[in-house]
Amino acid sequence: MKPYLLSLTTASLGVYLLLSGPYLWAGLPQKPPVLTPPPSKSLPAARDTLLEVGGHRLHFRIWRGKTPIILFESGGGDDLSVWKGILAPIYRATGATLVTYDRAGFGTSEIDSSQLTIHQQILSLKTGLSKLGLDRKCLIVAHSLGGIFATAFAARYPSQVKGAVFLDATQAVFWTPSQLNGFLTQYAAVQPQTRKTAPGRYWMYATMPQLVAEMHQTVFPRTIPAVAIMADQPFYPTADETTRWRQAQQQFVAAAPNRKLLVAKGSGHYVMLDRPDLAVKTISTLYQEIKAKDNMPKKINN
């Protein structure tokens, strides 16, 4: 989420999370990672389009390449522009089709206030991908609240999602009743002001109880490999929230053997901005693993 959604002003900088056992520490690099294919492969021209998805239109920006596609889910309050710093290096490393979009009410996407459940928004995304001819195998990359939408998409279409990278992403277990009540109290005063100026944020605030209820009923499939990157600099204002956020990441990874946790040293909540090297390397590595698995000879039963 953006800073105006959750108070970041008292977040402690320079606090480092010490982990051991199965958790991995992603330290600051000595030099930028070497990516393949070579840097001469430039990002192709983007296609911008507004697509009717049933009662409103969603804005998509696509760079055509190979499959599987890489689908990006932005955090709460963000539009697709939040990904612009890592798209070119990801394309150079993978050659994949890159798909970014604005959720309803954000960026240039329209909003239909009667279709704002997580389920309805996932169906709208699916409709848009189908119209683009991109309703196919994908790797999902999600930040913050986008993790909930990525989880819902994977849960509904498990055969389509081949992997996921979560960048300091929301896990449902973090949103306890007291966390929700604190959120609603904090934004009760500013919510009416956003109805005209920022409708996406207004309706996100208004529907948060329903979103939280839905996210607690949605489970990321154990069959899909995933990497969770956790920022080591807390962005919640209390020690309790920071502890529960980190525990939620650890619990997610511990729930299946094909999940991995990385800790992004020196990074705040926006891992793709603070540690683009780590984000690009992690996304590219998982993408190549997915491609290699797809190309493996299929077993023939006699």
What does this 3D model show about the protein?
The chain has one domain (about 25-170, about 220-290): Alpha/Beta hydrolase fold, catalytic domain (Rossmann fold, 3-Layer(aba) Sandwich). The protein has helices at about 85-95, 120-130, 145-155, 175-185, 195, 200-205, 210-215, 240-255, 270-275, 275-295; strands at about 25, 45-50, 55-65, 65-75, 95-100, 140-145, 160-165, 225-230, 260-265. The protein is of the alpha/beta class and about 300 residues long. It has a nine-stranded mixed β-sheet with strand order 1-9-8-7-6-4-5-3-2, with helices on both faces. The protein is built from ten helices and nine strands.
Note the main attributes of this structure.
302 residues, alpha/beta, Rossmann fold, 9-stranded mixed β-sheet, 9 strands, 35% helix, globular, disordered N terminus
Write a brief caption for the model.
With 302 residues, the chain is of the alpha/beta class.
What CATH first level would be assigned? Alpha Beta
Any idea what the CATH superfamily is called?
Alpha/Beta hydrolase fold, catalytic domain
- Could you state the oligomeric state of the chains shown? single chain
Shape: globular
Q: Specify Rg, calculated over alpha carbons.
A: 19 Å
What would you say the CATH architecture is? 3-Layer(aba) Sandwich
Distance between the termini: 52 Å
Q: How large is the share of residues in beta strands? A: 15-25%
Helicity range: 25-40%
Low-confidence stretches: 1-40, 298-302
Structural class: alpha/beta
Number of helices: 10
Q: What's the order of the H and E elements?
A: EEEEHEHEHEHHHHEHEHH
Q: What's the main sheet like?
A: 9 strands, mixed
Spatial sequence of strands, sheet with the most strands: 1-9-8-7-6-4-5-3-2
Number of strands: 9
The overall pLDDT average reads 85
